[in-house]
Structure formats: C-alpha cells, structure tokens
Amino acid sequence: xxxxxxxxxxxxxxxxxxxxxxxxxxxxxxxxxxxxxxxxxxxxxxxxxxxxxxxxxxxxxxxxxxxxxxxxxxxxxxxxxxxxxxxxxxxxxxxxxxxxxxxxxxxxxxxxxxxxxxxxxxxxxx
Length: 126
Description:
Elements (H helix, E strand, L loop, with lengths): L2 H27 L4 H6 L6 H21 L3 H19 L8 H26 L4
Helix pairs in contact: 1-3, 1-5, 3-4, 4-5
Family: Belongs to the DoxX family.
Pfam family, one: DoxX
Subcellular location: Cell membrane
C-alpha cells in the first residue's frame, strides 16, 4: 500500500470512527427523543435499547478510529445503523412535507455512511 493510500485509509477510518463515537456517546448518555422513536417499534425497554445501541456505536466508532479490528468495527457499525435509521428516520410515516424531507435526507446520509463503512470493511488492509 502506498503512503498516500495508507494515509487516506487512516483518515477515512478516523473520520468515520469519530463520527460514530461522538454520536453513539450522545445517544448512550442522553437518549432523549430517540426513546420515543424506539418505543414506536414496540421494544419492551426502549430507553435501554437506545442506550445499548448508542454504546455499541461509540465502541465501534472508537475501535474504527483507532484501527482496532477495523473490518469488524465497520461491519458492526453497519448493523447498528439499520435500527437507528428505521426507528429514527421513518420518513414514510411523516405527514408534514418538511419533516418527510428532513428524515429522507438523514436516511440518505446514513446510506452514505454505510457505503463508507463497507469500503473500509472491503479494504485488504482492514
């Protein structure tokens, strides 16, 4: 792997990882409105589910940023984005057009994050 490719690999893991570490920490320590979204899914303990998912994102993000098992961390983060996206950004349920647009943007953003995570997972050096 060239020096430029290696640096880009490290920077991409750092950028993705810190994003998940920060947002996961926020969800784990301050679940707030996320609990209502999780409750809409019929989860028995939505606050615990939000905190657990946030902690998983924070741990996976930290591992990815630090280069610790980056392939496993990236794939774990992909898995954590699925419930987050379904519970938190159900644009198909929104009646207000602006709310629908905002949630659709978040779904597309998460799709982009999934793409970045899959690229990390597919790297030979991961």
